[in-house]
Amino acid sequence: MKHLRRQIRTLFMAAFVVFSLAACTNQFAYNTLPFWIDYYLSDYVDMTPSQQAQLERDLDAFHEWHRKTELPQIQALLNQLERDTAKPLSYSQLGAYHKLVNERIRGSVEGLTPALVNLIRSLNDKQAAQWIETMNERIDEGIEKANKGTLEDQRERRQGRLIERAEFWIDKVNNKQQAQLLEMATYQIEMRPVFYGIRDELVAELTGILNNRQAPDLAQQINAYFSRLISFQSDAYHNDMAIYLARRYELLQRLDRHLSNKQRKALRTKLASYSDDITSVTE
Length: 283
Prior knowledge:
Low-confidence stretches: 1-26
Order of helices and strands: HHHHHHHHHHHHHH
Largest sheet: none
Shape: globular
Number of helices: 14
Structural class: mainly alpha
Radius of gyration: 20 Å
């Protein structure tokens, strides 16, 4: 449980909890989704019994809505991707799927907005300050961990995480694929100043939401925040992120083109199994 708690703490906002569990669609994980969102939020703010009770009611309503409304759309996306990955995706297809995935993430997390509006409006000054302080502490911990060791150490750690994610989908990666993932790890480390700049903007935006929690347009502010969080974009870094995404798509296309028949079959089997899991959840 301590290991799981550390994992959850690294998440930047409840949005990632929602999508991680909804996308995986493991039946037990999905059916306990309200618990995990509650668990995450309680790590940032100590709630009163009345706040806790209201949050639980709101999360139950969100869960029922998500099961009926969003899961079928996630399943349709999985089925479409499973069909299309029978052969290598084009560069434009990769970009289109990136946008489609972001749309489904945004659709899921915006369903949480009513619950968050109720919770944030109910916070007192001490609770709001606690949320902000904890958020900044988690970010500082993440930066310290990411910058640990030499640049070579950092590249190897990031490459290892990318390999782990790839092998989750396509089974064992070969030496050439490992080298390509090292290329991406190196580039992501070079992009840290941009990533950190966007993160700082998002932190400032969320801080403003918490400090001005009685604003009449709070729901709209939260949805706008979610949109920027999910796309991880900002006006100040628009060109930098456009270049980064183009390079990422190009690398993904190279990886996709050279998947073995066994790897492509593993990928499509994984996608199909998630679709089957959604069917089990929604029956």
